[in-house]
Amino acid sequence: MRSDVTRAHYDRLADRYDENWAYSPEFIRWMTDDILDRLRLGPGDLAMDLGCGTGLYSRGLARHASTVVCADPSPAMLEQLPADERLIPLHSGAEDLAEGRIAPPHDGYDAILLKEVLHHVTDPPRVLAGLARLLRPGGRMLVVMLPTSIDYPLFSAALRLFEERQPDPTGIVTAMGRSGLAAELSYDEFPLAFTVEHYTQMVRNRYMSLLSSFDDAELEAGISEIRREHSGPEVRFPDRFAFVLGVKA
Hints:
- By secondary structure, the protein is an alpha/beta fold.
- It has one domain (4-193, 238-248): Rossmann fold (3-Layer(aba) Sandwich).
- It has helices spanning 4-13, 17-22, 25-39, 58-62, 75-78, 94-98, 124-132, 156-165, 169-178, 196-204, 216-229; strands at 46-50, 67-72, 87-91, 109-115, 135-145, 181-195, 234-248.
- The protein has a 7-stranded mixed β-sheet with strand order 3-2-1-4-5-7-6.
- α7 crosses α9 (169-178).
- The radius of gyration is 18 Å and the shape is globular.
C-alpha cells in the first residue's frame, strides 16, 4: 500500500463498507458476472481475491472455485468476511505477497483477482511480476480498475487528484506482458443513479480511498460544490471499468 493512511481508511470504513454498495445489488451481480466471465473458474480451481475487502466478490468466486484465499491488509475488513469454509482469510497486501514477505497458503493459483488494488501500490509492474509467479500454468490474473478519467459527480479537486494518481490500464497490459502473461484489455460500464443526498453522504463517508486525502473542511466544501453542480434530486453517471486479463502459458 502507498501508506498506512490507506490501510487506516479501510479499517475505518469496514463497518459501513457494504452499506455503500447495498443501494445496488444489481451492480454487484453485474460486476461479479464480468469477473467470472473473464476468469473462467472451474470447480477444482484455487483462486485468490487480493484486496478482497469484506468479500463482496470473493463470494461469487467461491460459487465456482474450490477455495478462495481472501487477502487484504485491513484486519477490520477481513473480520467482515462471511462464514464459509471455502473462504480463507489472509492478512496481507499485494506488495507483501508479490515480494515474498508473506507466503500464501498454496503453492500456486489458477486465478488471481485484483479489483481496484493497483492504484494503492507504489510499483505496479513489480507487484504484477511477483504475483505472476504465483500462477499455475494456464492461470489467469484479472486486474479490474477505473480508467484514467471518470465521470463521477465529485468535486473538481478530487477529480484532479484521481487523474494524477490513477495508473493507465494500457501500462498494466504492458507490465503483464513483461511478466510473461498474454494480456488483453477490455472495458464495460454500469449506469448508476443516486439521490444527491445519498451520494453526498457517501462522499462524506469517504467511500473512495481518494477522499481520505481531504480533511473534513475540504470535504464539506467539495460537497457544497457537488450540490451547486447538481441542483436536481438525482445524479446519474456511468461507472466504467477497465478489465486487464493476463494468462500464463
